[in-house]
Every structure is written in C-alpha cells, then in structure tokens.
Design a protein that fits this description.
This protein is α/β, with parallel strands linked by helices. It is 53% helix and 18% strand. The longest helix has 46 residues, at 7-52. Bound molecules: ligand C2E and calcium ion (CA) (2 copies).
Amino acid sequence: MKRNSNGQSDLKDADTVERTGKDVLVLGIAMATIIMFVGTGGTAMAQVVRWLQGIGLPPDRLLTNALLLNIALIIFGWRRYRDLADEVQTRSRAEAHARELAETDPLTGCLNRRSIGPASNRLLAESLNRGEHVALVMIDIDNFKRLNDCNGHAAGDAVLRETARRVNAILPPRALLARLGGDEFACTIPFESVRPETIDRIAGELIEAICQPVLADGLLIEGATVSLGLARAELAPGKMASAQQLLHMADIAMYHSKKAGKNRYYWFEDQMENELRFRSELEAGIRAGIALGEFVPFYEPQVDLKTGNISGFEMLARWQSPTHGLVGPDVFIPIAEEIGVIGELSESVIRQALEDARIWNPSLTLSVNISPLQLRDPWFSQKLLKLLVTANFPPSRLEIEITESCLHENLGLVRSLITSLKNQGIRISLDDFGTGYSSLSQLRTLPFDRIKIDRSFIATLSENKDSLTIVQAITSLGNGLGLPITAEGVESAQVMEELRRLGEFKAQGYFYGKPASGAEIMERLEGLGLLLDDMRSPRPKPKAVVQQSDAA
Ligand code: C2E
Ligand code: CA
Ligand code: CA
C-alpha cells in the first residue's frame, strides 16, 4: 500500500477497492443464481409443485437441492443488496455532514473562512455567465472585544449569532455569508452591473441593522457599531477576479473605515494599499526603534504662576526615526498601543527621563503620561517602582498623568492601581480635564492629586467666553475638592494674566517653552542654577524666575 503524507486517503482508497471487489463478487453470485434459477427452476419447480399436488413423481433430488440452494442464494443476495443500500445511504449522509461541518461556522451556521473562497469563486464564475458584477463586503464589529469583556462570552456569542441573522435577512438570495473568525464577517454579493448603488444601499442597511440592541440572556446589549470595507469585481469575458483578491481589497477598505472613525463603510481605492504599506512600515519602524533606543524623552517646563518659578517638567516622548525624522507622540502612541508595544516604549522613555531628572534640582518634579492600556497591566505599579529604585529616584518627585478617558474603562481596576501608586508616594494628575465627560462623583471617589485643564480651553481663554466659563467652573470645582490645577497650552502673556486673575494655577505651554531634549533642558537648568550642586560649575544659586527671554 502506498503511504505518503496523504496516507489517510490512500487507506480509504484501499478500503474502497476491497469493498468494490466484494460487491462485484456478490453481483456475480447473484447473476449466476438467477441464471441457475431460470435454468433449473423451470423444470424442478414444476416437478415439485406437481408432486406436492399428488399428481406426479417425486422431483429429482439433485435438482431439488439445486433449487433450494438457489432460493437460499437469492435470499442471501437480496439481504446483501439491502445492507449495501443502507450502508451507502449512511455513508453519504455522514459525508454530507462532515462536509457541512468543514464548511460552516458552528456558532452562526454561516460559511467559514476556508469555504468562502471556493464558494465565492463559483459565484464569480456563475455571475460572469449571467452578465453580473460581484461585490465583497467585509464586516467588522468595532467594539466587540469590550462588549465581550463587559458582558461575558455567552452574550458575545449571542451578538455574533444575531449579527449573522440580521445580515442574512438583508442579503439578496444568491449572496454568500461567512464568518471569518472572531467578529469578522464577509459577504459576497452579485449585483446587476448597471446598479452599483445596490451595494451602497445594502451597506447602509447592514450598518443600521447591526447597531440595533441585542437581547441576550435577558441582557440588553447596546452600543455595537460596525465598520465595513467594500470591493467590487466588474466581470467581463477575459476579466475575472479571484475571491482572494477581493477579500484582500475589502479588508484594506474596512481597515480604512476603522481609521476614519468606525461605524461607516468605504469602497476600496488603490491608494489605500499605499497607506497600508506606509502604516506597516511605521509599525516595523516602531518595533525596531524601541530596541534601538530611537524613542527619547523631551521635556516641557511647568511653572508656578504665582512665583513664576519652574516647578518641574512634563516628559513628552519623541521618535528620532532615521527615515521619518523627529516624530510626535500623536503619530506613534496610537500605533504602539495597537500593536501592543506601548508598555515597552513607555518604560524605555521613563527610564531615560529618570536618568535625566536625577541631576535636576530635587525640588523639580517629573510628570509622565501613561496610556490607558498600561493601566490594565496588573504589573504596572511594580514595573514603575522597579524603574524608580534602579534610577534611585524618589517616588515623591514623580507624577503620573492619566487621561479622563481611562476612567470609562474598568474604574475598579484604575482605582486600586491609583491607590497602590499613591501608597508608594507617587502623585496622580487627571490629564485633559474637560474633554472626557467624567462625572463629578468619579472625580470625588478617585484620589487624584491634581487636575490639568485641557489646552483647548486655555488656548482660547482670552477670546472665547465659553472657554472662560468652563475654566472658571473647573477652577471652582478644583477648589471645592481641594485639588490643585494645572493649565496646559498657555501661549501668550495675555492668557497668563487672565489665569492669574482667576486663581492659583500651575501653567505650561509654548509661552514658557516648547518641549526640548534632555540636553537642552540641562543647559537651561544650568543657566537657572537648578542642576544639582555637583553637576554644575560653582556659582551663586540665582532665583529660578522664568523670564520672557526663557519663553519659546
Ligand atoms: P498632552 O499630555 O496633553 O501633552 C501636551 C501636548 O500639547 C504636547 O504635545 C505639547 O507639545 C503640546 N503643547 C504644549 N503646550 C502647548 C501650547 O502652548 N500650544 C499648543 N498648541 N500645544 C502645546 P505632544 O508632545 O505632541 O504630545 C501629545 C500627546 O501625546 C500628549 O498630550 C500625551 O497625551 C501623549 N504623550 C506624549 N508622550 C507620551 C508618553 O510617553 N506616553 C503616553 N502614553 N502618551 C504620551
Ligand atoms: Ca499630559
Ligand atoms: Ca494634556
């Protein structure tokens, strides 16, 4: 027997050959029996019947035995035939069941990732013959992971089943629907070549339908949104597309919808592919850059408004990329979060910042920004403490800035983390306050040390009445809760004066200095006499007043 990597099907072939041999034998015996029956039955049967009626001689013994054997063989043959027919039926049922299992997704009953390609290719060929075009729609539920984490997997499964049901109800009769895995679905839809708007209409209906609440286990699950990517094959003789190509294009378009803010659809366009290539170059660059030490801390001064003294610095990460130049955090932080390297990146810049800050005057604080994803890391506070201990940096000089948006996810975890950091002596600021709609009760129950008013309100303070009202409100809120306030984004003397009138603040912004490298900051601090004594040339320690000439 031939055995190769496909040994199983060889075995099956051998089995089939053996069975076919037996069946031929049975068929041969049956044929012979019938011929014998016709040959002997005609004479012997008549003799037996006559003898039984008492009108003839006893039948020839040999013939009678042959006849009995014949009848036995016919019964045996019939039985064997029936068994065979049963076996064939059972087998083909089992095969159909196995095929179905291999081709469908057990949760939703849709096709699966393996079968959508071949099935779509068949549909493409069929549509070409009918003179139709085909669209591929990629569907991805935007916030499925959160939905699953918050409501449990049973609820997540219910959402997936209901999504499949709703999509199926919208799709035209010959369309195909597959679940590719997780929360990703793909539909292949044939459409009349003169009516491409059909697919736009279907896409709109899909978004609308999937967003409706789902009732799972008595739980009403709301707030799901969905991003779609569409690609079309305009079929013509000699111009055929493959399902694989279409899936790839629709996937890129879907990714584009996500980037553009989710809960929408986009048709694939060629330039999207270039964007995606650029994006994966960035991803690779970020991964490599962390290991190569290309991420460095920059620092923005924070000033006490009352005295005008520098009280510390906010560390803002920069990427010194050999290909892209100096890149800001708004570009690389979201990517680093998405590809799961934010913790590593953050640790690397904090480590350098602690090293830089060690030679600053001990009265100066260091603030670092922490991503919401890092707050979910159960080892976060241990990691931070290890960095502090290694750098021999007192926790009391470190301030952690977390944004308001962190508070919406897993408040309990954030609370215990904040408490544990505070127990070590680290202080916590609530960053970008005013943009994230945190409730006042949350503010009261979380032990923050400071509020930072978002720069969007500060920058427009002197010209926009609404901004003034908001800043006033936040100020009295801070005073009421006993929380000191930092105003970010002070760009002019006018805004600084306005803030002075409103109350006591710390301030930061381009007016006091743009973010600068560790070396530049060291130089500046040296000029102000704010480096540790043994780090600077001996001269009398001047008062650390920030003058206009210091401002950027
Ligand atoms: P942020 O914490 O709100 O930081 C202040 C941002 O405003 C900085 O932008 C700063 O350069 C800019 N800025 C400061 N003063 C002014 C001003 O007067 N006018 C204007 N127009 N802008 C001003 P940057 O450095 O691009 O940082 C952007 C954001 O990136 C930061 O916002 C922070 O949330 C995040 N980020 C920076 N470094 C890190 C980091 O190491 N880890 C994490 N997770 N996030 C970081
Ligand atoms: Ca900040
Ligand atoms: Ca901020």
